[in-house]
Design brief:
Helix 2 crosses helix 3. The protein has a single domain, classed as 2-Layer Sandwich (HIT family, subunit A). 30% of the residues lie in helices and 18% in strands. It is an alpha+beta fold. The protein binds adenosine monophosphate (AMP). The site of adenosine monophosphate has 13 residues, from loops.
Length: 140
């Protein structure tokens, strides 16, 4: 089932500073934060500030601006985490795995010989996430 964008979502609150996050990057276009249920070490999210539900309704100009940031953040994350590759993922609608209905991109570092964790089922300590955020910030 799909629907209209609802601004009352967790990422809008994080963007507004009403909820805490481990922030990696912020500018006028987007924010990037550590995913609190990471599928691998250094899993981050890139979240446009302008609200849209997902890829299917985002303004193409916003999308284009965000993708520039996604690439920069992917390069920085691979470098900072000493990863072997990056998985970029965006889920649109529940059937595709979307659980938060404000557009975001997952940047998931991949490591040779390491299986990634499953979606929204892992946990990481605040200290680990804070340390990883600092490393990625430093690599930007
Ligand atoms: P998706 O399921 O593709 O919509 O992705 C949503 C992602 O947001 C999941 O990977 C969650 O682990 C992550 N997430 C949910 N709440 C938070 C939060 N408060 N801070 C950081 N990441 C979150």
């Amino acid at each position: 089932m799909s629907g209209a964008y609802d601004p009352n979502n967790i990422f809008t609150k994080i963007i507004a500073g009403e909820l805490p996050s481990h922030k990696v990057y912020e500018d006028d276009v987007c924010i990037s934060i550590m995913d609190i249920m990471p599928e691998s070490k250094g899993h981050i999210l890139v979240i446009p500030k302008q609200g849209s539900r997902n890829l299917l309704d985002v303004d193409p100009h916003v999308l284009s601006d965000v993708m520039e940031r996604v690439q920069k953040l992917a390069v920085a994350t691979k470098h900072a985490m000493n990863a072997d590759g990056i998985l970029l993922r965006q889920s649109s609608e529940e059937v595709a795995g979307q659980t938060v209905y404000h557009l975001h991109f997952h940047i998931i570092p991949c490591y040779v010989g390491q299986k990634r964790g499953s979606h929204v089922s892992n946990s990481s300590s605040n200290d680990e996430l804070a340390a990883q955020a600092e490393l990625i910030k430093a690599a930007m």
